[in-house]
Amino acid sequence: MSATFDPIAPRPAPVRTEGFVPWVRRNLFGDIKSTITTVVIALLAVLYLPPLINWAFVQAVYQPDAEACQAARGSGACWGAIVEKYRLVIFGRYPFDDQWRPLLATALMLGLLVASCTRPLWNKWLVVRWLVVLGAFLVLMGGGWFGLEEVSTDQWGGLPLTIMLASLSIVFAFPLAVLVALGRRSHLPAIRTFCTLYVELIRGVPLISVLFMASFMFPLFMPQGMTIDVLVRVLVGITLFAAAYMAEVIRGGLQAIPKGQVEAAQSLGLSYWQTQRKIVLPQALALVVPGIMNNFISIFKDTSLVTIVSLYELTGSTGLAFNSDADWRPFKIEAYLFITAIYFVFCFAMSRYSLWIEKQLNRSRTR
Amino acid sequence: MSAVAQTAADPIIRFDKVNKWYGNNFHVLRDINLNVARGERIVICGPSGSGKSTLIRCVNRLEEHQEGHIVVDGTELTDDIKAIDKVRREVGMVFQQFNLFPHLTVLENLTLSPMWVGKMPKKDAEERAMQQLTRVRIAEQAGKYPLQLSGGQQQRVAIARALCLTPKIMLFDEPTSALDPEMIKEVLDVMIELAKGGITMLCVTHEMGFAKAVANRVIFMDQGQIVEQNTPEEFFNNPKSERTKDFLSKILGH
Question: What is the ipTM of this complex?
């Protein structure tokens, strides 16, 4: 008896499941529905992409040449308009020769802003750092010291103003929102009522009317001869507005923390503020990172509304640069595409950061 | 004259005609009179809603009482925050749901209070924390986060955390009720060891084996009142009131 060797019948080679072609077959032509979708999208792309590329790149004018732009109007983009006007768009009415000052000031602030996003800097020195950089920012922008020529705030504009308004209102609104959120849960009726009133009042009006109040109404109530800079008033307006919304987001996080956490902290002898700071807020804030980042992004874009009170931040300065110049006015759309890209870069960076920090903060919850 | 009489004269916890209501109509504690001697180990049992958790939560003012007096180690509990803080430093508490801080590591859970309440330097606080973790046999988990541990391990960490302030009194609020059966023993073992060390203990539990092993006194509560209290032997073998008998038949009946 010996085992006979029976070869099995040859089978076809395994179908390739990795690589580009199988991927396309599986994902784009998997069934009838997705095949139709693929074909329709491909058709649309064939129809509309070539003219778009043609307009944006092939026929576009890159030189700051108004006549060439005029000639290409309708068929090609005029990127030359941005080359011609970018200083005005970016820096607004800030004196041309001194524009290195807002550039440096903004770089400083952005640098600290980025650095503040990392955990090692979350300590008591953060406040000091912010005060120093804020001081440097104001001196650089406003001048009057160290031989820098004075530049009044109504000449500030463009991207530096956008970044300043956005970052300062975020920096001030965040702690205010935390306090208001805690206040709404306070067991002291006066504090609770005050915080609730504040939130409901601010949420009941549009930001534009808050800005109008800050800009035009508020000075009427000031004593004679006393003035507060319009920039400060607007900054306070945006801060108060943003904080009301943020407070509600944070309150949502506070409510998600089990009562047992507070009781455990109390039983260990921690005071109210120690409990909030060490136990409740770290957990609550980690939960509402997406909501808070929503607020931050909103604030950044809402700064464009200050145009209506004659502060020319990025959007305003773009209008300013083009509206008064008949030669270039038709090419405003290109400029708006340009600042759209700028807004997008900042907002996208914020939303990526939000994803990253969320992962960092929730590390303790993963096994 | 005797040692018992002496400690009874100087109780570490004294409840004097304490009444408490939840809202306006739910009378949760009725005329509670209770003296706890130094080093005494008391087990409190009773049906759910009988007020036993509320009773021990009054000791460190997690609950306020509306009438009567509670004096803990010479300090009367009132609205005075200083008095409350003083009492809380002397009273450690262990909860049914552990209530560890999930965003802090085990070690940070333990050092938090010594550093922030006791103003202890970080190094000393960590040293003490490691001692306590060794005591509850979990030192090797110091760097982990609470949610990475089993229920029994978490509860032992919670006990170690409460011990880090070197309390004179330990309160246990159903410490084993949320645990899987196989983890109950590891927690009870730690508690029995703790009891041998002579600390004053108030423990709400239905672990009657534990009561027999360590308690000086068992208290039975029902409807906000202390119905019966006695030594464990007398309490289990010779219950006096009908309600106690009924309760014991239910929890020992199987």
Answer: 0.91
